[in-house]
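1st attempt posting a full record on here, be nice pls
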Amino acid sequence: MVAAVRNNQSRSLRSVARQFRTSLSVVQRWVDWAADRPLETVDWSGRQAGCRHSAKRTNHQVEELVLEIRKCLREESALGEYGAEAIHREMAARGLKDIPSVRTLGRILERCGVLDGRRRRRYQAPPSGWYLPEVAAGFAEMDSFDIVEDLVIRGGQNVNVLTGISLHGGLCAAWPQAQITAKFTVEALISHWRKYGLPRYAKFDNDTVFQGAHQFTDSFGRVMRLCLSLQVTPVFAPPGRHGFQNEIESFNGRWQEKVWDRFQFAKRSDVVTQSQSYVTAYHGRHAERIAGAPPRRAFAKRWKLDLQAPLQGRVIYIRYTNEQGDATLLGRTLLASPVWSQRLVRAEVDLTQSEIRFYALRRRDPHNHPLLSTHEYHAPKKPFSG
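the predicted structure (as tokens):
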């Protein structure tokens, strides 16, 4: 390249770069590097003149002495310390002159690769829905539902939004209303599941809309009875804990950002219209993911909700135990295991088998859920009056 430039002084550096299929900066660099010297005398390695190592670098003999002292302290020191500060103290105790500073000793240890400080171990995140084996394995779908509360249109109209999204498929839904009640939630879920099919699980937080009254024991609310009637297992996330509602909380944030925050609404019906447009567009955007999700069961055409029907099926509660290993659910405190205190458990209320089973859950071992204990349990037979 340099010879081509020198042989034709009228030729541009850019044309030489095109000839050798390189950039203009590369040609400029080597022309400047060669300067006016004969080409046969130019060092084409591109190294700068001078010493390759810093002139202030610690003498090699001193580095060897530092490593020797470190080895001695590691093997023989009663205190068991052999870091930079310990080496500095030992060199001073030996009466050595021109002792490097502690920081210099640290750089020597790092340069020689003898630092053995422990780094924080990071564990792989568990799979989505890891607390339910079928969901984690991708064999079953789970819909999550939540409520976005206390939105207000200018002028005083309240807006609350019932939201939902499936874990694997990302099938979403949003129902803006003045107030979200258990009756409205049942109607919305029936409409949604008639259109898209039934999941194996439906996850909720512990709001009374979903769970029922909290002041009574053995309370099975309207939404729970709907799920059990359709053979959909309701799952309740642990109260006051983060992480178990991530998918629905994330969708809530997106809905507020893309719908509520983007537009000015004059009335509640405008919110409903814009929300429906967003949900439709969202389904189109994620059509491939929705199609690749675990299959959903068809909704029975002749099904009819009977809130007084005997309770059958399972209800799952994800809970943390207290110091004694007890877990609270259905207004009861039951012993999960005295050796599993302040830890995560999955409580399966089997209404068909009349028992409650507690399983141990660990994020670091998400595929192993050993059975901790079993309790006899009989569902209430009193008529539903919610």
